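Exam review. A common question shows you a sequence with its structure tokens and asks you to describe the fold in words. Practice with the pair below. Do the first one on your own.
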Amino acid sequence: MILLNAGFAFAQEMQAERAVEALAVFLPPTARVVRDEVRCEIAAKDLVPGDILVVRSSAAPPAAVARQKRS
């Protein structure tokens, strides 16, 4: 009985992961930035040079970000 329950739990977990991955396709990647001294959240495709990216420790930066050294 325990093995049967574990099998059902595993199957539900896999189905939930696939559902989350399918939904992620519909959400465009966004970035939190400071632009013109105002914090805002914009689509990652709208990033421009001069935007200051606000990154949380648990978040991955958008792929369009190039690291620049402050002078």
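Now try the second one, then compare your answer with the model answer below.
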Amino acid sequence: MGFALRPASCGVGYGLETAKLLLDVGFDDLGRHRVWGARSPFDTAFARTVEEAAGMVEEGTIRKHVLKAGKWRDSVVHAILDREWHGPLSNCAAGGLCVRWCRGIRTDAIGLILAVTVASL
């Protein structure tokens, strides 16, 4: 899974709610066995969000696989298995992003979602 928020939307819980929404879609709607995502090693806020709040586990580093601004960069992989998922969105904050996939994603509130990839093994 992957997503990005507008800078103005950061730090208010939308990342957590978006991660939980995407995990809910992956497990409950699509029936996946495993959902994973990758992040920059420098994105510690995302690491806290997916590990502590969404229950994902850091699995390791993919070395020098993304070419950005002329430099090869690492990515850190996080994943969660269906048996570890405690969804659906049970911890939505009041007035937060508590919408189901079929209703669409409120991009006005959470920012622009650039990519969503749900994979299973």
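Model answer, second protein: The longest helix spans residues 14-29. The radius of gyration is 14 Å. Full marks require stating both points clearly.
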